[in-house]
Amino acid sequence: MSERVKSEEELEAEAAEWFTTMHSGDADSETRERFEAWLHGDRAHKIAYREFEQVYRDLDYVSSEAGVDVDEALGRRKSVWAALFPEWLRKPAFVGGAALAAVAAIGLVVVSNIQTPVSTPTVVAAPEFQTQVAEIRELTLEDGTVVTLGAKSRIETEFTATRRQVTLLDGEAFFEVTKDPDRPFFVAAQDTLVRVVGTKFDVKRSADIVHVSVLEGVVEVMKPGDIEEAIVSDDTSGIDKQVLTAGDRVSAARRVALPQAKQVEQIEPGAWRKGRLAYEDASLAEIVSDLNRYYDRPIRIASSDVGDMRATMAFQTAEIDQVFDVMEAIYPVTIDKPASGEITVRRKR
Q1: What mean pLDDT do residues 177-204 have?
Q2: What count of other Cβ atoms lies within 10 Å of the Cβ of residue 319?
Q3: Which of its termini does the chain have fewer beta carbons within 10 Å around, N or C?
Q4: pLDDT of 254-284, one tens digit each?
Q5: How much is the pTM?
């Protein structure tokens, strides 16, 4: 006996329910697995979910087109509504009678969120996320992708019906990307672009270098002349790239051709999520840059020759005070540690 075909209304209701669930901040790994199974189990599910995503983004436009005051209809203050739907969710797509249906659908999301308070919200409707010094935060994006945002880091997100994009503005992030062959996932950092379909990998910005390392799956790293054009067109066929698999890493310096990827056996990508920082032939400048994201006092390198010194080391983020002693013991440096204020790493005289 063939499976019953769901009506359009049923598909819309399921899409609305999943959209709300994945934005609630309570989506655990089991929920994400069920969501992926539902999303990829039927092409109609994927279409319904993407249409609902677009409705969510077009809220401000459709409400005005329909002549509906959504704040008044829901009995909510405009400041609250604005907090739920920020400025970035304003891209016109619906007009006429479709607008009324769109506003009604959005109402389902708002009512659901009001009825289910969240103690530690990780709602992903906002385009930008950031962490403070020593703070690590896990986010579930609207497609089910999980991002672990490192200390003192910042990302911007943009999701459409045809693409998924994250820009790493500062710091480091580990990605566990939900598979969607019809909608590749891009991460942009400086002049470097990463393209995946579904995998686990780490991206870090350190001074003028972007480090990409892979824990699982396949990742393409490239330097297109126009990053936005490459993402929008999803045409990277003519761009030189490095293809990384598990254990591979590439360090891409800004405005310099992409180097060859190399296998790094001693450092597990994303180990920092467990409080461990590890380096293999890294510059002191990179190490100190990371320390500044985890330590509560600023650390400065006095001169470029000190920053260029190479080091291989590993330590826990809770043991940074001991790291200073190790540096002084194995490198020709002196570390000035006043009772308060800035710490300085300078060449030993």
Answers
A1: 93
A2: 12
A3: N
A4: 888 888 888 887 788 999 999 999 988 889 9
A5: 0.65
User: What is the model's pLDDT at position 125?
Assistant: 45
The amino acid at 295:
Y
What are the structure tokens assigned to 334, written together? Answer: 């002196």
- The CATH number corresponding to 275-347 among 3.50.50.60, 3.40.50.300, 2.70.40.10, 3.55.50.30 equals 3.55.50.30
| Domain with residues 128-263, CATH architecture | Sandwich (2.60)
Query: Which parts of 115-171 are beta strand (E)?
Result: 128-130, 137-140, 146-149, 154-159, 164-170
What residues does each domain of the chain span? 8-115, 128-263, 275-347
DSSP letter string over 222-286?
E--S-HHHHHHHT--TTS-EEEE-TTEEEEEETTSPPPPPEE-SS--TTGGGGTEEEEEEEEHHH
Neighbour-count burial of 77, counting CB atoms closer than 10 A to its CB (0-12 exposed, 13-18 middle, 19+ buried): exposed
What is the layout of strands, in order, in the sheet containing 172-176?
137-140, 146-149, 172-176, 200-206, 209-216, 248-253, 262-263
Query: Which two three-digit tokens encode residue 136?
Result: 């690590």
pLDDT, residue 94, reads: 37
- CA 122 – CA 331 distance, rounded (Å): 42
Contact 314, 278 (CB under 8 A): yes
Better pLDDT: 318 or 27: 318
Determine whether 107 is exposed, middle or buried from the number of CB atoms within 10 Å of its CB (0-12, 13-18, 19+).
middle
Mean pLDDT of 154-168: 92
Could you tell me which of 204, 203, 198, 236 has the C-alpha nearest to residue 218?
A: 198
The pLDDT mean for the chain works out to: 78
